[in-house]
Write a structure and sequence with these properties.
The chain is an alpha/beta fold. The relative contact order is 0.07.
Amino acid sequence: MSKRTDIHKILIIGSGPIIIGQACEFDYSGTQACKALRSLGYEIVLVNSNPATIMTDPEMADVTYIEPLNTDRLEQIIAKERPDALLPNLGGQSGLNLCAELAKEGILDKYQVKVIGVQVDAIERGEDRIEFKKSMDALGIQMARSEVAYTVEEALKIADTLGYPVVLRPAYTMGGAGGGLVYNKEELKTVCARGLQASLVGQVLVEESILGWEELELEVVRDADNNMITVCFIENIDPLGVHTGDSFCCAPMLTISEECQKELQRQAYKIVASVEVIGGTNVQFAHDPVTDRIVVIEINPRTSRSSALASKATGFPIALVSAMLACGLTLKDIPCGKYGTLDKYVPDGDYVVIKFARWAFEKFKGVEDKLGTQMRAVGEVMSIGKTYKEAFQKAIRSLETGRYGLGYARDYYTKTKEALLQMLITPSSDRHFIMYEALRKGATVEEIFDITKVKTYFIQQMKEMVEEETALAAFKGSLPSDDMLISAKKNGFSDKYLSQLLDISEDTVRSRRIELGVEENWEGVHVSGTPDSAYYYSTYNGTDMNPINTERPKVMILGGGPNRIGQGIEFDYCCVHASLALKKLGFETIIVNCNPETVSTDYDTSDKLYFEPLTLEDVLSIYKKEQPVGVIAQFGGQTPLNLASELEKNGVKILGTSPSVIDLAEDRDLFRAMMDRLEIPMPESGMATTVDEALAIAGRIGYPVMVRPSYVLGGRGMEVVYDDDSMEGYMKAAVGVTPDRPILIDRFLNHALECEADAISDGNHAFVPAVMEHIELAGVHSGDSACIIPSVHISEENVRTIKEYTKKIAEEMHVKGLMNMQYAIENGKVYVLEANPRASRTVPLVSKVCNIRMVPLATDIITSELTGRPSPVAELKEKDIPYYGVKEAVFPFNMFQEVDPVLGPEMRSTGEVLGLSSSYGEAFYKAQEATQSKLPLKGTVLISVNRKDKAEVAEVAKMFAEDGFKLLATGNTYELIREAGIEAEKVKKLYEGRPNILDMITNGVIDLIVNSPVGKDSIHDDSYLRKAAIKAKIPYITTIAAARVTAKGIRYMNEHGRGDVKSLQQLHGEISDRLG
């Protein structure tokens, strides 16, 4: 069959902001789809609300909309663009759900839009628990015994017949949201109520527990002629009971018999054929190793997190192929250098792939580190090795948690065998590290299997690693015998970990193994559907099959490693653009990264991809092999920066800003001295290592003060302290404070406006495209604050000052490339907070709103010493931007229901969205809408603020009253609103009796909540209010500044109605050069 000619213009829905359960794997699949479809000659309209993605770049699709993902906005876009077809299965759960809603509301029929790739009824058969069960029964495929409930009472009855424990799964949700495993009636009542609320259709499946069974996944691709291939067989090493997104898993299956795999494939093909998905589908099975019973758990009729993993594990670009198949091509039509055509594909790699998740429990106080059926991971790494041991140990050192091997994590090695076995009963993010110590303490393979149900093969492998480690440790203080060193390297022990075990330097280990000829070799993973493309992994167990080109000079880009809070997709965005820019400048590009979800690890982003951990050992080996003219470290966030100075010591040329400058910006004393020299003001500050020093500094500066540890990203451990008692408490609780890692204390700028500026600098001159104004006041981490670009409330004079300071600092520090500056304005005076001489998370945002290619420009500057090209900075002109972009952060509080959702100096958001409009009120409204918390245009608003905000509360109340809202207020807030002559009704706080605000939130009579937290100085905790708001999905605002903008946004929408939607390309056409 050939491609379809009845369609010309295709709409692709992206997956929106990065949240737990839906990360940047959809940027990867959407970007691949755009490439595939444009190569076939189709016109692409793309809609997504996430500005940090490659797919929303104006070059990726023909027309790009950065708009909230809901049916109203999509109908506006469809009416304007009139696409012939919609491809919904590359935008994750968001894309599928939206497609189903558009069909249900008749919008697709109204504008005659065909759905390609997956049919609307197939989405229902895959997602609706009842429909799915019907389809499976008809095919004679077993599922876990279950029934559907629409009320808590029904669920209780079903659970009685099935017997506890039971699993609850809400329909149409993702990442296991709202579900869980319950052991008794009380637990069932709470979880079921939550699940019914989380489900689009108020439907929860109650099913028998199959805890402890093997969890196995197949990634299947089907075309319109019903040809099917299995791209990958994935075995979850953690048994059922842990969400697959949190599970540690391997491909190929290592302990599953050939017959069982064939049976799984037979059933998977039957299911996929009956659902009629065209493209990739992920099918999850459970297998009971005792009775050999197989049940299907669920299918995802779309590209998923597992398909990104399967793609990178096998070299089969699932999203790219899915997009081609959706347009009528078949597997036989796609040629492949290895198999002839893709219908002949079989997964036959002779290597082992491991995926390990990355969590962020330390960011959320009060959350138990516990894994279950609801996904908790914020990112993942993938590693490839020749053996299970090698791949496993590579995965551990890829995680960037400061661990280079499995032993000696936390204080587990000090605990007894009994205590460790006790800890293994509940799965946690450290489960495999605890197993390792338990084995060291003499636990048997059987004992661990009984508790964890992890297959004995994997425990046995781990036991052999423990035994080898114990034998090595006997040589502490010197090198082990040559045979032992060679064996340790073959089994994946890293140089760094061996140096820790043997108490000798990493250099000693490295030089000895090189003398012995023990060096990394590389083998390729062939990319299916290409003549001979491949990407490479290292092994100490193979022969080198890594062809080296020498025609063009090479530049190596270090990637960002696993996604985590504080370091997300924005840095991957920078690495991808750097690679594309370097190709244009005539370099051969090399990317090193270990994150399977990203565009940077797509085979054709760079000329050569190394799928490797970002550690000294791995990067140096590649450097030695490839001999690049330089390495770029400033685009991958904190990861490569932590390596930069070590690499430099080993003779690696770091391009761009030098590592010593980056250290200078981190050293508060050196940085302050420089600011004094440049006569640029900073908030008064000091450094303390003891309680007395801290109290003395605070006495000198005056409270409130901001305290934080040095050398952190994403504001770890930052707090605002108001008095001596709290200061003493903070200093006593602070861990690892040493004279070279002191606690930093700064005067906290009260009620100051925070803003930031990104700059492009060539070492002598710098250019600032725009100043971003934060909506939240100083004290909220810049990654969590909403921000407006270009700024609205900063005076002309202050904007000039900010641009001037930024240029001065960039020139003084000789920054080559990108830089980010944070400022605060207090009473009209601009203070510098910090300088980050590297790419920051706002780069994609500034690039898109201001239509400036920041990374390519920076790349041009960084490589100018090699190319001799003139600096582009002099050519850059100030622009007039006739619209506003509002960035809003997205938080995982719905996944962590026990956490108080207040914003503070520590970053806790997982992703972001962007609202664009010619009015900043509407831009703010759209940004809120894009985070799925749509602001009400009328109704009832509850206002309850703390002492510090009392002064401004009347002004905000007045704005809401004028917009026709009914006002409810508590205690003092009520008195202040009444004094200002505004109508309001007094309501009770939780401890004042009933009916109180909690009752009103639960009963749904409140539409919007303005509540600034009372803080630590109050006897009554008010976090229940904000937690209840999240549960009831009521928009809530925790700062007065944001409340003010909210009221303006609502007013604008009431006066003007919903504005027209404009594509990014159209908006960019409205930008003009600033005159004068």
